[in-house]
Design goal:
Layout (H helix, E strand, L loop, with lengths): L15 E4 L2 E4 L41 E7 L6 H7 L4 E4 L11 H15 L4 E7 L8 H8 L15 E2 L20 E2 L6 H14 L6 E5 L14 H25 L2 E4 L6 E4 L2 H4 L1 H13 L2 E5 L6 H14 L4 E4 L4 E2 L25 E3 L2 E5 L5 E5 L4 E5 L12
Parallel strand pairs: 3-4, 3-12, 3-13, 4-5, 5-8, 8-9, 9-10, 10-11, 11-12
Antiparallel strand pairs: 1-2, 6-7, 14-15, 15-16, 16-17
Helix pairs in contact: 4-5, 7-8
């Protein structure tokens, strides 16, 4: 593999770091941009073998709207009220920066959170969040990359480490508190096979610590927006190396039967954080995902209420397929702000299995469901409506 001059360096690196059972040994006197003895360069990390088995997916039912939550308390731990609300969801994605200022690694804090949520709802499906671009400073994985700094971080043509800002999402409050590097975090330099292996292993460490699957953010995005000094060659090399890592993760997740949220046809589900405000384009993407059998996590716009919330939910119902979930809202919560931990009353209303795919008449999609619920969405006006039906009467067992 040819690297650009900005990524090709020669130095003495003597490090042995253990990351949940995966050990990286630096090879003294070698170029750290090349594989160390015994390291693979195939993009197939297998520090421990996984057997092929059927994938375990989140609980899914047409009885009511299939929903998920995705958020993090960045100023502390979730209190009893928040835990009780989150435990009502069948599906929860544990976002980054949880209890950020407390000592310890994020992975350990999230493992404790998993224990609390499973105690309240043993059937809840928990998904661990991490990133394919950003080296989040509270994660254990950052402790490993920092030992290899600056080589395992992306650098520009002058050798300066890229520092990427963290986006909390439109309307999310408070912001993610990543400021250790002057307002952001480094980005991974995936040209190192050892880093790719460790990054993939991160998911499976967490599925051994109370989590049922993993979500990878920025699967196809790059960290170069607003950055200077990155030649096209460096940017292309980053994409190629990052794709090796994500492909290896997808292959291993498939073999292990692990639920994986990311991008492309080899994952279980797509994450669509901008689903709510995107309008008709989001619906077309959802219809395409449903047609191809891909799941989807469709997030509404934070602080949405009334007609705006109803339109986003109606659009979702029109386009949803099996394995599609609606929810999220704010990715962060904190002192005095709890919008990300909200159980909307619509989540308890009757839905029923769809009677057919949505029918398009002019610019208006209509879809009917078994419990007499009907959803419409106008692609021209971006207005949706829902007429809720009723639950069927409970069957009686003869005495």
């Amino acid at each position: 593999m040819m690297l650009s001059p900005a990524l090709r360096v020669t130095a003495v690196v003597i490090v042995s770091v253990v990351l949940h059972g995966y050990t990286v040994h630096g090879d003294p006197g070698t170029d750290p941009s090349h594989p160390t003895p015994g390291a693979t360069d195939t993009g197939n990390p297998s520090p421990r073998a996984d057997t092929h088995r059927q994938r375990s997916d989140p609980p899914f039912s047409w009885r009511t709207v299939p929903v998920f939550a995705e958020t993090s308390n960045v100023t502390g731990v979730f209190d009893a009220e928040a835990l009780a609300t989150l435990a009502k969801f069948p599906f929860f994605v544990a976002e980054k920066a949880y209890d950020f200022d407390a000592p310890g690694f994020a992975e350990d804090k999230l493992a404790t959170l998993a224990t609390k949520l499973k105690a309240l709802n043993p059937e809840i499906f928990l998904v661990f969040y991490y990133n394919a671009n950003l080296d989040l400073t509270d994660y254990r994985l950052y402790n490993l990359t920092a030992q290899h700094a600056p080589f395992w971080w992306l650098r520009n043509d002058q050798g300066k480490v890229l520092i990427a800002p963290i986006d909390s999402g439109a309307g999310a409050t408070p912001p993610f508190p990543y400021n250790a590097h002057g307002g952001g975090v480094p980005a991974y330099n995936f040209s190192f096979p050892e880093l790719r292996d460790a990054w993939v292993q991160e998911c499976f460490d967490m599925t051994s610590s109370g989590y049922d699957g993993c979500m990878v953010d920025r699967w196809i995005r790059t960290p170069f927006k607003g950055q200077k000094g990155f030649s096209p060659a460096v940017q292309a090399q980053f994409v190629a190396d990052r794709n090796l890592a994500t492909a290896a993760l997808a292959a291993r997740a498939k073999a292990a039967g692990t639920y994986l949220v990311g991008e492309g046809p080899d994952v279980a589900a797509l994450s669509f954080p901008g689903y709510g405000p995107t309008g008709a384009k989001a619906l077309q993407a959802q219809l395409a995902a449903a047609a191809s059998g891909l799941g989807m996590l469709a997030s509404y716009t934070p602080k949405s209420t009334g007609a705006s919330f109803a339109t986003q939910l109606a659009k979702f119902l029109v386009g949803m397929g099996h394995g599609h979930y609606f929810g999220a809202g704010s990715w962060t919560v904190g002192d005095g702000y709890r919008e990300g931990v909200t159980w909307h009353p619509e989540y308890d209303l009757p839905l029923g299995a769809p009677l057919s795919n949505a029918v398009l008449n002019g610019t208006v999609y209509t879809r009917k469901f078994a419990y007499a619920t009907e959803a419409t969405y106008d692609t021209a006006t971006n207005v949706g409506t829902i007429k809720w039906g009723t639950f069927p009467p409970k069957s009686r067992t003869p005495t």
